[in-house]
Amino acid sequence: MGSVLVFGASGQLGQCLAHVAGERKMDELVFLPEAEANILNPAGLRQLFARYQPTYAINCAAYTAVDKAEDEVDLARQVNRDGVANLSTLCAEYDTTLIHVSTDFVFAGTGNQPLLETDETAPISVYGLTKLEGEQVIPAHTSRYFILRTSWLYSEYANNFVKTMLRFGRERDELRVIWDQIGTPTYAIDLAGCILTIIGTQSQQYGTYHYSNEGVTSWYDFAVDIFELSNTTVKTTPIRTAEYPTKATRPAYSVMDKTKAKTQLGVAIPHWRESLKVCISRLPAQ
Ligand SMILES: NC(=O)C1=CN([C@@H]2O[C@H](COP(=O)(O)OP(=O)(O)OC[C@H]3O[C@@H](n4cnc5c(N)ncnc54)[C@H](OP(=O)(O)O)[C@@H]3O)[C@@H](O)[C@H]2O)C=CC1
Ligand SMILES: Cc1cn([C@H]2C[C@H](O)[C@@H](COP(=O)(O)OP(=O)(O)O[C@H]3O[C@@H](C)C(=O)[C@@H](O)[C@H]3O)O2)c(=O)[nH]c1=O
């Protein structure tokens, strides 16, 4: 096995990949934080590809500030589209398989049935639009790619909804959380495991996949379970999206169907509540 370059290594998913690669004793991964590999710098990227001749490139680098993206359209597009194009070009040139991560926010979220990979995309936010544009540039350069669309990532690393809720639970008397946005949380450790399974099995089932944990919930119900599993007592009130105004609009329904990932990649997917228990047990008690 040749080397595996991980871009955006200091973000949440990058750190989860380091965790799982350590557990699986996969020492071919090279973790590249933005300071060592800016995906907007083609010359710097080229030097890395020339030096490592990677078999795989995993792209965890992204502009993920959903509300801020509404005001920083150009920057979001540069990172989420142009950076992906830079990586795809080099992957084609160096015979490198690209594993890229995308989002449920490529969908409008107006339906009520689990979304298939072939369902129509229609993003309703700048973040979602630029992530879709990133998906679309890849096949123009290479056919050896995996695009994994995931949703509601959380883990013990970096900033995420679980850690925000636990902090608010300590700091506030009452929380108001949206209950009319429905989706599935994903433990980023499980997603990292899926990515490393693709590499470990040298899968050639290229294409676009949905990968979240199993099950369905709302942000409100997710918050209630976070508090229950962490023995946190805080009044939590369900509210409608309209009562929590944000700059970006989020999909109302973004549950994804994972049949393709389970059958073609052979990955087992835990239920979100089981994975949440694992994450909470690993977070330091406050
Ligand atoms: N977080 C979530 O809930 C979800 C995330 N996703 C997708 O999953 C992937 C991983 O997300 P996650 O780990 O949570 O996100 P993070 O925001 O935690 O990590 C993204 C990383 O990318 C880095 N980065 C930004 N710009 C560049 C650049 N030009 N060159 C190199 N690195 C850069 C960031 O560095 P810095 O912090 O220094 O800017 C950060 O370390 C992304 O593609 C995201 O779109 C999909 C669904 C849900
Ligand atoms: C903090 C907070 C959030 N919310 C709502 C707002 C929002 O609808 C939802 C989640 O809020 P957050 O800001 O944590 O997460 P958000 O940035 O919307 O999360 C998204 O990030 C991008 C990167 C993705 O790709 C998506 O899959 C999704 O995970 O919870 C409340 O209702 N009450 C609260 O106190």
TrEMBL record:
GO terms for biological process: dTDP-rhamnose biosynthetic process. One of its GO terms (cellular component) is cytosol. Its EC number is 1.1.1.133. GO terms for molecular function: dTDP-4-dehydrorhamnose reductase activity. It catalyses: dTDP-beta-L-rhamnose + NADP(+) = dTDP-4-dehydro-beta-L-rhamnose + NADPH + H(+). Residues 4-282 form the RmlD-like substrate binding domain. Pathway: Carbohydrate biosynthesis; dTDP-L-rhamnose biosynthesis. Keywords: NADP, Oxidoreductase. Pfam families: RmlD_sub_bind. It is an enzyme of class 1 (oxidoreductase). It comes from the Bacteria. Catalyzes the reduction of dTDP-6-deoxy-L-lyxo-4-hexulose to yield dTDP-L-rhamnose. PANTHER family: DTDP-4-DEHYDRORHAMNOSE REDUCTASE, METHIONINE ADENOSYLTRANSFERASE 2 SUBUNIT BETA. Belongs to the dTDP-4-dehydrorhamnose reductase family. NCBIfam families: rmlD. This is dTDP-4-dehydrorhamnose reductase. It comes from Hymenobacter aquaticus.
